[in-house]
Amino acid sequence: MKTMTTDELINLLDANEDLNIIDVREDHEVENGMIPGAVHIPLGSIPEEAPNLDKSKEYILVCKGGVRSANAAEYLEAQGFEVVNLEGGMMSYDGELEFK
C-alpha cells in the first residue's frame, strides 16, 4: 500500500492538484473539520460505497491517526482501486480545514 505524509499532501493541495480524498472518520469527528475537497465516507460505509467510486482515479484515504484509513485502503486495493494512505491522519495534518 502506498502512503503519503501530511507535508506531501499539503504541497499537492497548495499546488491545486486534482485530488480525490476520502475521509473515513465518523460523523462526530468530521464536525471538527476536514481536509478541503475531501469526501466523507465513514469506514463502515466503504463496502457499500465502493461501487460508486471510479477505478481510474487514485484515492487518498484519511482518518484520525492512519489506522482506519489503512484498513479502508486495504479493502479498496483488494477491489482493484489505486489508493494512498495518509500517514498519521488528521492528528498529523496541520493544513487548512473545511467545515461542512
UniProtKB/TrEMBL annotation:
Alphabetized SUPFAM superfamilies for the sequence: Rhodanese/Cell cycle control phosphatase
InterPro entries the UniProt entry points to: GlpE_sulfurtransferase, Rhodanese-like_dom, Rhodanese-like_dom_sf
Domain Rhodanese: residue ranges: 15-99
Superkingdom of the organism of origin: Bacteria
Coiled coil ranges: none
Name of the protein described by the UniProt record: Rhodanese-like domain-containing protein
